[in-house]
Amino acid sequence: MQCSIAMPKKNWKNFFHLKIPPFSTIIFLILISVITTCFVLYHNCIIPYQKKLEQEKLVNEYIKDKLQLYEEENKKYNEFDVDVVFLGDSLTDGCDLSKYYPEYITLNRGIGGDTTKRLEERLEVSVFAVQPKVVVMLIGGNNLNDMFDNYENNQVIKEIEYYLSKNKVFP
Description:
The chain contains 8 helices and 3 strands. It is mostly helical. A 3-stranded parallel β-sheet has the order 2-1-3. The model has no long low-confidence stretch (mean pLDDT 80).
C-alpha cells in the first residue's frame, strides 16, 4: 500500500517576482522608523539624562548650603573646643548627635548623597577648620561602584593623618 500526498505545483515565476511598493510608501515607512527611533531614544536616553542633571544640581545646591552652614558653625568654636566631628554621608547627616552624645561637643558634618571624592574636597571646612579632638568617619556607600578607585591612594585618610600630625594629634 502506497501513501502519497499530492503537492500543489508552484509557479516559480510568480514566487520570485516581488512587487516593489510605490516610492511614497517607502518614504512613509522610513519616516515612521525615524520617528519611532527618536521617540525611543528620547524616552530612554534624553529624559533619564535630564533627570540625572536635575538631581545633580539639587545635590550640589544642598552641598553648597551645608558647607555655608558649616562655615558659620566654625566661627563659634576655638581650637580644640569641639570634642568630636562626625563626617560622612546621609547615614551621618540624619543622626541626632545631641541625643546620643549630650556630654560632648559634637558636630554633625554629614551630607546626604556624599561620596568619598566629595568628602575629600570638603575636609578643610568640615573638619580641619574646627580642629576637633576626634574625627569619626562613615563614607563610601554612595560610591560603591568606584570606591576602590578613590581608596587606591587612601587620600582622605592621608589628609586626615597629615592634619592630625600637624596639630600634634596622632591617629
